[in-house]
Every structure is written in C-alpha cells, then in structure tokens.
C-alpha cells in the first residue's frame, strides 16, 4: 500500500468538572482546529460524559449543543427537584433578610457596626431554616440519603445518554424500537467494535476507596451508559451504582484526571492529552487579601492538581489547562445558554492558546505523512541503516541493496509504515504503509508472527529478508519472548539470487529449487541481531527523549 495522508492518533482524558464540563467541548473544538484526532477517550465524573460523546463521534460544537439543550438540572428527578429549588429560594430570602448585601459593604474591622447585623441574621435564620417546610425538607433529605445513599437517581442521565447514542450507533437498524433495544444493551466491547475507538472511564469503589477502571479491557460485558452514569454520580447528590458487586460512585473522588488509563506500554506511548479544568488564578498583588474560606478551597484544589500533575507526568500525559472563570461553580446546574457559551469559549481559547505554544503539539502537527510522524517519535535512523549497508557490502561484494525500517504508530497496532531508508544504487525511498490485516504482504506476516521471513521474486531477481525487532531484545537479561511486543521490522532487499547471498545455507542434495529449501545461517542471525539491538536502543532512547519534552513550551 502506498503512503497516504495520515491521521495522527492521540488519546484524550478529561477531568471531572460538574456543570463546567462544557468547557471540555470547547477544548475539543480547539484540538479539532489544530488537526488533532483522538482514537481513545477516558475520563472521570462529567469528563466521562464528554469522553462518551466524543467516542460516538460528536464534535465539540455538537457536544455544546447537546449540553445546552439538556441542562444538568433537567437530568434530575422531578419529584426531588423541589428540594433543590426550595433550598435555593430560602438562600435568596436569607440573603436579603440578614442584610448580607449591606454587610458586604461595611469593613469587617468595624466590630460595633458589625454587631448591629446580629439581630437580622438570627431573624433570617429562624424564618428561612426553622419553618415547617424547611424542617420537613431537611428530615426528608436525610432519610432519603440514609436509605438510598443519595438523593437523585441516575436513570434520567442514563436515558439521555442513550438518546445521544441513537443518532450515532446501530444506524443500519431501521426500526427505531429495535435500535433503542440494542442501544440499551450496548457494552464496552461492542462500542469499541462499532466505533473503533477506545473508551475508558473511572469510578470509585466506596467500600475499598480505590479507582475502578471500566473499559473494554477490564469490563468488556458491562453496560456503557450505566457505567458512565456511575462515574458521574457525585456522592450524596446522586445515588451510587452497583456494578460487579461493587458500590461505585463519582470517579473524581479517587482520581479526577485519570491519564494513567492509557498505559504507555499498552498504547505505544502515543501522546495523551490530559484536559485539566482550572479557574483563573489570583493576581500576585491580591495574594495577601485572600479569605480563609477561599484559601482552604485553593489548598484542597492544589493538592488534587499536584496529584494529577504527577500522574500525568509519569504516564506521559500532556496537561492541557482548560481555564474558566471562578464565578461558575461545579454545582451551577441552572446556567443560562449565554453562560454556557461563555464557559465553552473560555475552554476553547485557553486550550488553543496552550496548543499553539506547546512544543509537543507544534512539532507534531507539521508531520504530514505517516513516516514523518514515526521519525518524530523514534528518530531518524537513516545513518544506522547506512552503516548496516556498508557492513553488508563488505560481506557480499558488488550486491545492490536497499534497507527499510518499519514501525507501528497506531493505538490498536493496526498499521506499519516504513520511516527510514538506505540504498547503494540511488533508488528513491518509498515510505509505504501496510494494514496489519493485509496478510498478502510478506512484511505483515513477519510482523504479526514475530519471525524471520524471506522471499524471492524470480521475475525481478530480488531477495527480501524481514527481521523482527522486539521491544525486549534477546540480549537482555530479562528477555521474555512470549509477552514481548514488536517495535520495528528490518527489511533487507537484495537485487540478487538467494543462493548468491551468504546469509543463506543450502543443505539440500543437488541444490535448492526454491528459497523455502534454504536455511538462514546462525552466524548471519547473530550479525543481524547485533544490528537490530543498536536500532532498538536508538529508537527507544529517542522515544523517551521525545516524550520528556511533552510539556516544554516555546
């Protein structure tokens, strides 16, 4: 297969953010405009919802439209929603009866004037919170929490997520009722088969306090929508979910930014963009005026952010700050369309600003071909191939030779691409790529089987040798061939008959009639093993250096 325009695969993880989650839709749109495509999504809490919608194929602007139409407050049980409105109403009454709006304008240092507000504060407290309705509301809420472990069910959230899926999956099912039934039983494994995109979400096991991964790998047969709802179930506010005999609640409790979901060894250390929701920082001149309540809140968030940063750094994550105004709270469930647009735009602007100055992103985007992106990650090893070519020319005099090096840069190990080349007869490099399901290609068989393959084209008099390069080389003390993964594939192409190449041994009587009858000599295998060891170390070293630069800015 000839080289074609690539889609550079990245992974995205979204932090929890409650009502501010629409900012992630803005950040997604910024990534789309930068030409970044995600082939896997993960998240916790409201970030899990964004991850699910993205997995379905919704664009950032489409997610914004969905969240504006179905505001969070509309996803709550109507019979319990009156509690929300009553508390909000009493808070407004208390604000005016206690003269809070006046007290804010009077300096706190003036204690004498401050004491004058003691009487209206007591009066407002009695009126607002000791009336029969408020007392009944309080007891009813406490009983509900005691029995159900939370106030609101997640049923309506689950149903809304299913509605979002209706326009994206099982479109081949024309009957709407049949499609709805299939959507109800959609599992993680089936979702990945349909979309070709990985979804991983985090929930918290209340009994053990540990983070629980829900995905096609750990829970392939679990229902997607119920799992995402479990990840989004803020404690006490929403009732916990029971999945696999575990009591699960909001994933943000155990890990609010789970960039570890995409293990670097499992996903070839592809770039993981960890979208971190933040509020605007205080200016330095205001630092001395910060109130104790705000100080404690910032202290808590700093501890959480520090943990997120460490996790993202260890797992190779690129932390993308998604900055929104502090006036929008996590529980601002009744935001207007104008406010939601503002949060969306703030998320988009801050993410776009970061991506334009981020070294990793700015260096990745100019890579317009698959082989360019592979060279960006693993380095240009043409000089090593040239050294190998010179060594082989000494062993086999006068032979015309070209060498190609293949690797895989996809999330699901589905395609290999030639990214490095050398030859001794001025042949133009062809950076071909092959789908790993294309079994007709010899290089694909060599890659999939992790074995030495060789072939001979009689019409062109060309002999090819394909030599696998695994992540763990047989020279390593901890080499494990069974669980080892492919890193690259070395191709040696000779313009000569296989019997004229000293790498092969003919042990037949009367001479070999085909290349299948010759053996690859043990000495030759040792020589090429040494070549591959050097190539492997160079590739892994460059990969490590490249990913260390992930949070370097211009």
UniProtKB/TrEMBL annotation:
Domain of life: Bacteria
Protein name, UniProt field: PNPLA domain-containing protein
Short motif (GXGXXG): ranges: 16-21
Motif, DGA/G: chain positions: 250-252
Keyword hit for Transmembrane: yes
An individual GO BP term: lipid catabolic process
SUPFAM superfamilies: FabD/lysophospholipase-like (SSF52151)
């Amino acid at each position: 297969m000839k080289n074609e325009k690539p889609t550079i695969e990245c992974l995205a993880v979204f932090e929890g953010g409650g009502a501010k989650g629409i900012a992630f839709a803005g950040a997604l749109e910024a990534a789309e405009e930068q030409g970044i495509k995600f082939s896997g999504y993960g998240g916790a809490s409201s970030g899990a919802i964004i991850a699910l919608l993205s997995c379905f194929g919704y664009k950032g602007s489409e997610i914004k439209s969905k969240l504006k139409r179905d505001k969070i407050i509309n996803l709550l049980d109507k019979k319990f929603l009156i509690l929300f409105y009553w508390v909000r109403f009493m808070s407004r009454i208390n604000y005016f009866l206690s003269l809070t709006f006046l007290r804010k304008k009077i300096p706190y240092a003036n204690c004498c004037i401050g004491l004058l507000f003691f009487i209206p504060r007591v009066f407002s407290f009695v009126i607002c919170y000791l009336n029969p309705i408020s007392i009944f509301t309080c007891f009813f809420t406490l009983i509900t929490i005691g029995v159900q472990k939370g106030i609101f069910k997640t049923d309506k959230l689950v149903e809304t997520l299913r509605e979002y899926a209706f326009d994206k999956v099982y479109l081949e099912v024309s009957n709407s009722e049949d499609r709805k039934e299939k959507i109800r039983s959609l599992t993680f494994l089936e979702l990945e088969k349909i979309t070709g995109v990985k979804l991983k979400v985090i929930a918290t096991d209340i009994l053990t306090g540990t983070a629980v991964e829900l995905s096609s790998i750990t829970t392939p047969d679990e229902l997607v929508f119920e799992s995402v709802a479990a990840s989004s179930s803020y404690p006490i506010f929403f009732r916990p979910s029971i999945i696999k005999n575990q009591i699960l609640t909001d994933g943000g409790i155990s890990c609010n930014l789970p960039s570890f979901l995409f293990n670097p060894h499992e996903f070839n250390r592809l770039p993981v963009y960890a979208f971190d929701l933040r509020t605007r920082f205080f200016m330095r001149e205001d630092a001395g005026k910060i109130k104790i309540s705000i100080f404690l809140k910032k202290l808590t968030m700093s501890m959480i952010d520090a943990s997120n940063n460490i996790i993202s750094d260890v797992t190779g994550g690129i932390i993308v700050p998604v900055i929104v105004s502090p006036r929008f709270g996590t529980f601002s469930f009744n935001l207007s369309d104008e406010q939601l647009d503002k949060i969306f735009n703030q998320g988009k602007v801050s993410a776009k600003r970061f991506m334009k100055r981020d070294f990793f992103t700015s260096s990745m985007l100019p890579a317009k071909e698959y082989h360019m992106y592979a060279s960006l990650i693993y380095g240009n090893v043409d000089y090593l191939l040239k050294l190998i070519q010179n060594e082989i020319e000494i062993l086999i005099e006068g032979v015309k030779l070209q060498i190609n090096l293949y690797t895989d840069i996809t999330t699901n190990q589905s395609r290999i691409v030639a990214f490095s080349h050398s030859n001794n007869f001025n042949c133009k490099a062809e950076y071909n790529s092959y789908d790993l399901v294309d079994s007709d290609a010899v290089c694909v068989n060599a890659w999939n089987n992790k074995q030495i393959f060789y072939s001979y084209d009689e019409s062109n008099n060309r002999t090819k040798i394909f030599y696998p390069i695994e992540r763990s080389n047989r020279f390593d003390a901890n080499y494990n061939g069974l669980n080892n993964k492919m890193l690259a594939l070395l191709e040696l192409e000779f313009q000569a008959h296989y019997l004229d190449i000293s790498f092969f041994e003919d042990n037949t009587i009367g001479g070999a009639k085909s290349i299948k009858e010759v053996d690859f000599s043990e000495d030759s295998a040792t020589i090429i093993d040494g070549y591959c060891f050097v190539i492997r170390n160079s590739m892994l070293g460059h990969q490590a250096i490249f990913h260390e630069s992930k949070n370097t800015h211009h």
